[in-house]
Amino acid sequence: MIKHSTAALLAAALLLNQVAHAEGTRIGDWLLIDQADEFTDSHLVAASTPSRDSVSKYGKSQLLTARCKDGELSLMLNWNEFISNKGSWDTGKVLEARVDKNPPKQYGYGISSSFQTTFVGDERPTSVTVNQYYELIDEMKNGEDVIFRIQPYGESPRVAKFSLNGFSDAYQTVFKCYEDTRKK
């Protein structure tokens, strides 16, 4: 259900650049993109929002994207800077998320080939990471803000804060793409 291959990770990095500069429908603070790829006949639906009150060490906004591409759901965070991929779930390769004033929760993460984008869950999804994905999405659908924190290997923590205004409605469209793809 939630899978990440090297090609998919590279495509995600390219997608984030496209989404950041694309036209779409505004839903609250989220930009919803719904497009078909004429070359591959695949369908892409993505909902993205830039960070608030936080930027990368290069002064660029981070970008949070929920997407359905080729029948796979992803929640991706482009940090717009290098994020070390050293470590593992056991040794600290952890992404933390906090919705509103709820206690922070820890998630494993996959990372793009550009080492700038993290995927909630893992590049080898299990029932645990899939359940964590849905738990976080459900929390986000009912929240006002989400904060992510990551501790890159040997570096200081990075923090990104995002508005959830409009996320619930935008995610319905993303999830509908997933359901429609599964019916085929």
Summarize the structure.
The protein is α+β, with helices and mostly antiparallel strands and 184 residues long. 26% of the residues lie in helices and 36% in strands.
| Fraction in helix | 25-40%
* Secondary-structure-derived class: alpha+beta
Outline type: globular
Number of domains: 1
Mean pLDDT: 78
Which residue ranges are poorly predicted, with pLDDT under 50 across at least 5 consecutive positions?
Answer: 1-21
CATH class: Mainly Beta
Biggest sheet: strands, sense, closure?
7 strands, antiparallel
CATH superfamily annotation: Invasion associated locus B (IalB) protein
Word description of this protein:
The chain has one domain: Immunoglobulin-like, CATH 2.60.40. The chain has helices at residues 6-20, 127-141, 167-183; strands spanning 25-27, 30-36, 43-55, 61-69, 72-78, 95-99, 105-107, 109-111, 117-120, 145-150, 158-163. It contains 3 helices and 11 strands, in the order αβββββββββαββα. It is globular and about 45 Å long. A 7-stranded antiparallel beta sheet has the order 1-2-3-4-5-9-8. It has a 4-stranded antiparallel beta sheet with strand order 7-6-10-11, covered by helices on one side. It has 184 residues and is of the alpha+beta class.
Helices, strands, pairings?
Elements: H1 6-20, E1 25-27, E2 30-36, E3 43-55, E4 61-69, E5 72-78, E6 95-99, E7 105-107, E8 109-111, E9 117-120, H2 127-141, E10 145-150, E11 158-163, H3 167-183
Features:
alpha+beta; 26% helix
